[in-house]
Amino acid sequence: MNPETVVTRSWEDIVNSVEKIEIPVNCLKRVTINLLDGKSKRLNIAQYRKKGMSNEEIEEIMGKYFFMLNDVIRNVDFFVDLKAVEELIQPMTDQLLAKLK
User: Fold this and answer.
1) H/E segment holding residue 57
2) For 7, 9, 19, 31, which has the most beta carbons within 10 A of its beta carbon?
3) Whole-structure pTM over 0.70, yes or no?
């Protein structure tokens, strides 16, 4: 197994073990809004980002969908962008570990 695979699996284990109450929009890959009638609305956050949208614009779009669909939402699935989480947390982890030396 190559080192990159090991690191990715480690981050997957960490992310999966944490209770996610709030997820920063910059750490999302996509959101699926599951509706009471069995249909779903998928928001491809990564695609919005590729189009140059800011986090604030993406949050606004998400908010509009949640508001419009509020009465018919069964649940919402958030899909985390592991690379974004790693890039956000790794520098902080490195700093903490450096202090332990």
Assistant:
1) helix 55-69
2) 31
3) no
